[in-house]
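Example record for the data management plan.
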Amino acid sequence: MPETWPMPSDKYGYKGFIYLEDEPKTDTKKLMRDDGVFFRRVGRNCWDPEAIIEDMNSHQVDMMVLCTIPVLFNYWAQPEHTLDWSMFINDHLINVQNKYPDRFITLGTLPMQAPQLAVMELERISKMGMPGIEIGSNIDGTNLDDESLFPVYEAAEALDMSIFVHPWNMMGEKEMQKYWLPWLVGMPAEESRAICNMIFGGIFDRYPKLRVMFAHGGGAFPITLGRISHGYHCRPDLVNLNDVKDPRDYMGRFWVDGITHDSKALKFTIDTFGNDKITYGTDYPFPLGDLDHGKFIETDHSMDAVLKEKILRNNIIEFLGLTKP
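Corresponding structural encoding:
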């Protein structure tokens, strides 16, 4: 994210936006606040490319894909304001990519609640050199199978732009505030919600060349795939509303990242989605992330060198549609 930005509530005329505030007595930390309420403390590696590169160099990371923090999607705001905000964020990201072309690739953000505006911005950032976008697991409550979003998928397919789906605005969040459960329970459920909506909504059939990746190892989806598939067969009247195939048939159709924090879970995820559809994800630089940058993969003796190279390098190149390393 940028190091600073104008107060959105002053610019747009209403509240609800995240803003940054300097933390007293330090120039390496900032506070993210939501209408004055503390949300998160962040360090230089949230806004300073040089700080990120320092971490990359210390962990032997050649390149990193950067995208914005989901709390900054602002899908809830007035569409024209979210478009303006998205352009601000995307311009910042592309400037970082252009300044450090050998270290960073970036994914943009869109005003997804207004698909026509989203397509306009998608076309703009495609011309600027972004290979894809990051979207939420739902669009301010609207599921990813909603027909209103079809123009965005159609444009992304036509422009050869990849889509990375990250959980946010977690269902049931208000009912499980204790124990950090929105992040521990809600986010894995959100990714399964997103995958199921795209499968059962026929998105992968309608847009066969669309490249989609889901964060957090697909969340709860891999371990519940058997239940989901069984439901498809035992209650087709409730599940198969769009004449799609068994959910198992879509394994290999999309990517997931491999941030599972558990070697057995990672192996199960690889078995579920296939060796070619697992990329390395970090959730960097936040506490729930893998801040050792793949050390657990590099030191896993059960994986051969070919699989490790796919996870750490080759599969992300394929997902992004890059023509060269």
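Summary line stored alongside the record: Residues 34 and 197 are 30 Å apart (CA to CA).
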